[in-house]
Amino acid sequence: MNLTIVSGPPSSGKTSIILKTIDAFQRRGLSVGVVKFDCLHTDDDLRYKKAGIPVKKGLSGALCPDHFFASNIEDVVEWGKREGLNLLITESAGLCNRCSPYLMGIKGICVIDNLSGINTPKKIGPMLKSADIVVITKGDIVSQAEREVFASRVSTVNPRAMVLHVNGLSGQGAYELSTLLYDETQNLESVQGMKLRFPMPSAMCSYCLGETRIGESFQLGNTKKMVWEEDET
Amino acid sequence: MKQQTIGALINEYPFIIDFFQQNRLDVSGHENTTFAAFLAKLGEEELEDKAIDIQNLPGELESYITQMSDFLGIEKTNVVQSLIILPGQDKNGQAEDFEQLEIFPSQIVSIVGPTGSGKSRLLADIEWAAQGDTPTGRSIRINRSVPDSKWRYSPNNKLVAQLSQNMNFVMDISAGEFVKLHAESRMVQNPDEIAKEILESANRLAGEPFSSDTAVTNLSGGQSRALMIADTAILSSSPIVLIDEIENAGIDRRKALELLVSQDKIVLMATHDPLLALMADRRIVIRNGGIHAVLQTTPEEKDLLTDLDKIDAVMQNARQMLRMGDTLRREEIFA
């Protein structure tokens, strides 16, 4: 089985891109399944089901979704193997743009859209920076100039990544993406012992543990203060 | 490269300032140290706060420098002198009935066929420089040989620029700043001059003039299209331009095509407007996912184009008079 980890900001078009890409795989007779991670709610699993794709969803609820991903990915891979998949895709939304779910040695794809603005590549951290492939979506509704500026900013932040434009509506570029995701010779047995590409923040403060009161005396653990200098402009 | 100081690197490759900025690294005051030494000095807290990956950054800086140097270097030799499309098959596996289609810079080829007939697929085949490895089985040749893989994988070398009906500007800046921003991302030597040239060209295409201070989001439909076309013609890195229907309103479509062609672009144009379709010397007919035929525009059609132009001129004239607040009179409109 092959594994691909897809990540990207909410509403960037991850599900549409994955659906169009799986379409290309199905024509080749390969079986693909998806595990969708989200925080509070998602109906995307229904879109996969409707397309006849084996799907599971995981809602992290009160936990940070990327932490939740890391603690569940082993079982996810087990499920994929039980289903007899050729390719397993995990999809998760990066919520604070700080973490990334990519594992070393596993293909990582970041999906971002042209509408998010040209300063976005700078704002997104390891989720964009450590991806192998960056898929840019919604190119059909912005000007060619913005597409070019956006793509050049992406490759400034992540010069090693392959940058692809894929249209989630028409599917233009999805076939091409599919050729980059499946490697016949690769056979993943387990992800046990693998490592995250980038460590998650070492946040552990009283608010992580359910504190709701505001005030210095309630703040314990790893906290941080803004700098308020008099001459600051 | 590893031994050079940051200052020396900036001197040699001025574009890396952008790399530092986009990666949220403030190197000012550290010009006399190497990049690795600079990273080593960053405190653990800062590394975590800014999500900085010191292990990989030096390698990434190197990749960036190589990539940008390549990009700036090949720019000059990046010329596409010929595009050839070799046949594959349609959705039913029927072989496409043409030998090969070769298109040269400054040529316009129109594409006709019902919605969903496979125009996107044709375009994707060109964009991906297909080698019999896409669902249509078509192959693309650039300069009469198998294309370099850079056309597929390099972010700064895309074969096709696209102009479609529903494209908008989403940035909230003035037209002048917008064009300059694009020019800077392309690393052109004289962004101000290029910006001026683009705005002048765009104004020649637009029915109503606009200034460099106008916000791009405030441009009329015709003005935006004019700016997009002028910008793509003059500044886009892609040698092939695909146009998906240019609307008639507020823009001189003939001049727009002339501008693209004058910049040595290969122009593919999906349209059902006879004025545009007949301006091309050839047209691709798409049916059921395949290229059904490649037609030459006949002398009769070219002749017909003159008559159709006259009809169009009448409409344009009437539109212009309405815009000026005139009352339409038969003898003036048909003058």
**DSSP strand count of chain A:** 7
Distance between the termini of chain B: 71 Å
According to CATH, what is the topology of chain A?
Answer: Rossmann fold
CATH topology of the largest domain in chain B: Rossmann fold
Spans of at least 5 consecutive residues with low confidence of chain B? none
Overall shape of chain A:
globular
Which strand order spans the largest sheet of chain B, edge to edge or round the barrel?
5-6-7-3-8-9
What is the name of the CATH architecture of the largest domain in chain B?
A: 3-Layer(aba) Sandwich
Q: Summarize the amount of helix of chain B as a percent range.
A: 40-55%
Oligomer: heterodimer
Give the rounded overall mean pLDDT of chain B.
Answer: 87
Class based on secondary structure composition and strand pairing of chain B: alpha/beta
Helices and strands of chain B, in order, run as HHHHHEEEHEHEHHHEHEHEEHH
Q: What share of residues are in beta strands of chain B? A: 5-15%
| Corresponding CATH superfamily of chain A | P-loop containing nucleotide triphosphate hydrolases
Structural class of chain A: alpha/beta
> Helical element count of chain B?
14
Largest sheet of chain B: 6 strands, mixed
Describe the structure concisely for a colleague:
The complex is a heterodimer of chains A (233) and B (335). Chain A is α/β, with parallel strands linked by helices and 233 residues long.
Protein model, in words:
The complex is a heterodimer of chains A (233) and B (335). With 233 residues, chain A is of the alpha/beta class. Chain A has one domain: Rossmann fold, CATH 3.40.50.300. Helices cover 30% and strands 18% of the residues of chain A. Chain A contains seven helices and seven strands. In chain A, strands 3-2-4-1-5-6-7 form a seven-stranded parallel β-sheet, with helices on both faces. In chain A, strand 6, helix 6 and strand 7 form a beta-alpha-beta unit. In chain A, helix 1 (14-27) packs across helix 7. Chain A is globular, with a radius of gyration of 19 Å. Chain A starts with a strand and ends in a 52-residue tail after the last helix. In chain B, helix 11 (253-262) links the parallel strand 6 (240-244) and strand 7 (266-270). Chain B folds into three domains: 6-77; 100-297, Rossmann fold, CATH 3.40.50; 298-335. The longest helix of chain B has 25 residues, at 299-323. The N and C termini of chain B lie far apart (71 Å). In chain B, 37% of the residues are buried. Chain B has 14 helices and nine strands. Chain B is α/β, with parallel strands linked by helices and 335 residues long. The interface between A and B is large, with 50 and 52 residues.
